[in-house]
UniProtKB/TrEMBL annotation:
Its cofactor is FMN; [3Fe-4S] cluster. GO terms for molecular function: 3 iron, 4 sulfur cluster binding; glutamate synthase activity; metal ion binding. SUPFAM superfamilies: FMN-linked oxidoreductases (SSF51395), N-terminal nucleophile aminohydrolases (Ntn hydrolases) (SSF56235). It holds the Pfam family GATase_2. The keyword Translocase does not apply. The keyword Zinc does not apply. One of its GO terms (biological process) is glutamate biosynthetic process. Residues 200-442 form the Glutamate synthase central-N domain. Belongs to the glutamate synthase family. Pathway: Amino-acid biosynthesis. Transmembrane segments: none annotated. InterPro entries: Aldolase_TIM (IPR013785), ET-N_metabolism_enzyme (IPR050711), GATase_2_dom (IPR017932), Glu_synth_centr_N (IPR006982), Ntn_hydrolases_N (IPR029055). This is Glutamine amidotransferase type-2 domain-containing protein.
């Protein structure tokens, strides 16, 4: 985002501050440096904290619309920082603390009659006579504890957030600029014929086991299949069988007592929504910064992807303005072997840069229509190549990156694509495979199932 930054609040050339986050520094150091930039750029310290660590607002049914608009707008500027941590902050005048949005670290505070405030991870860190304590409590997830030493008072959470939310017309900006996926025009999406489906599945490495054990349970239950914690398959690098590139990105870990956050069982503090499109100037908030498309989920159906791709059709006049989309061919020439793959990756990088220069705001990497002469580039390889190329050129924030993938079919696959730079993924062959199983009544799949 550095290339998009501009502000009069910081005198001189901003280039002298880059990179904002010191390479090789800790996560905490990077957070501190980003927070310092925001405060130097004109944000108040509490506002910058709320931008970086917003409370879980997406599924909060009792939150005011004004406060929700504040968080939704800033979600288009930067991603939330999840922690886990209890963070204390000060600029010399105000000081405070906030928990990560999941509340995975404790913080307790005491206030005494002589205006001493003690906050620590546990009670008893500092010895304070209980007779002098006039208030005590714990810092709750999403809540901010703030002291203004100039005014000599504790500022309560509602006062802080209501003041921030009313500072700019966030709801008006969102209503005028943020486009929701369901509002896009509908377009016909390409289909894979019954005769060609098996050929596609073979090209992308599908197996009978993948259809029965992975895809069918996901389609039937609406969640990833649950299996044993162990696996008897060799690691990909030692396997004698061809393995998808995704299989090389796994690691051993200790489960201990920390289960993963679950979007279904912990719906209040988790959300899957995201926005896609060009970003704005982080240091100059304005209505144009939220001119993006809101996606309720990072996995797109074929119809939803067709609606987004359709925005790039010059013959179409209906629909949201100022969105421009270009599809990049994610295939390479088989006859040229490894050299052909390298050349195709170079071509993708070059086409991505040229597209940004042409004013394109969304790129779609698509490996559709494989042939004997043109094989698909592994989606993870293509995504990482384009994403990191644009980061090096400091143009990544000027474009959204979507992936239309035939090889992605597992939760792990989609997670990797998102982690390596994709804003959203359309696993079109997985949907086509499920449609075929539904049509044939295989593995107990109901004929009423749809991609949605």
């Amino acid at each position: 985002r550095e290339a998009l930054m501009a502000t009069d609040a910081i005198p001189g050339d901003l280039d002298r501050l880059f990179p904002i986050c010191t390479p090789g520094a800790s996560d905490s150091a990077g957070f501190d440096e980003a927070l310092e930039l925001l405060t130097m750029g004109g944000y108040s310290l509490p506002e910058a904290i709320l931008m970086m660590i917003p409370e879980p607002w997406e599924n909060h049914g009792e939150m005011s619309d004004q406060r929700r608009a504040f968080y939704q707008y800033h979600a288009s500027l930067m991603e939330p920082w999840d922690g886990p941590a209890s963070i204390a902050f000060t600029d010399g005048t105000v000081m405070g603390a906030v928990l990560d949005r999941n509340g995975l670290r404790p913080s307790r505070y005491w206030v005494t009659a002589d205006d001493l405030v003690v906050m620590a991870s546990e009670v008893g860190v500092v010895e304070v006579p209980t007779s002098e304590v006039v208030e005590k409590g714990r810092l709750q997830p999403g809540r901010m504890f703030l002291i203004d030493t100039a005014e000599g008072r504790i500022i309560r959470d509602d006062e802080i957030k209501d003041g921030m939310a009313s500072g700019r017309p966030y709801r008006k900006w969102l209503d005028q600029n943020l486009v929701h996926l369901d509002d896009l025009p509908l377009y016909d999406c390409p289909t894979i014929g019954e005769s060609a489906l098996l050929e596609h599945q073979q090209v992308y490495g599908y197996t009978h086991e993948a259809l029965k054990v992975l895809l069918a349970p996901m389609a039937r239950d609406g969640k990833g299949a649950i299996g044993s914690m162990g696996t008897d398959t060799p690691v990909a690098v030692l396997s004698n069988q061809p393995r998808p590139l995704y299989d090389y990105f796994q690691q051993l870990f200790a489960q201990v007592t920390n289960p993963p956050l679950d979007a279904m069982r912990e719906e209040l503090i988790t959300a899957l929504g995201t926005t896609v499109g060009a970003e704005g100037n982080l240091l100059a908030p304005g209505p144009e910064s939220c001119h993006q498309i809101h996606l309720p989920h990072p996995v797109l159906t074929e119809g939803q992807m067709a609606s987004i791709i359709g925005l790039g059709d010059d013959s179409v006049t209906a629909g949201p303005s100022r969105f421009s989309v270009r599809v990049l061919d994610g295939r390479y020439e088989v006859a040229r072997g490894a050299r052909g793959l390298t050349e195709a990756l170079d071509r993708l990088r070059s086409e991505a840069s040229d597209s940004i220069d042409d004013g394109i705001t969304m790129l779609v990497l698509s490996d559709r229509s494989p042939t004997a002469a043109m094989a698909p580039i592994p989606s993870l390889l293509a995504t990482g190549a384009v994403h990191h190329h644009l980061i090096r050129e400091k143009t990544r924030a000027r474009v959204g990156l979507l992936v239309e993938s035939g090889d992605a079919r597992e939760v792990h696959h989609v997670g990797l694509l998102l982690g390596y730079g994709a804003s959203a993924v359309c696993p079109y062959l997985a949907f086509a495979s499920v449609d075929a199983m539904v049509a044939e009544g295989m593995y107990g799949l109901s004929p009423d199932l749809t991609a949605e």
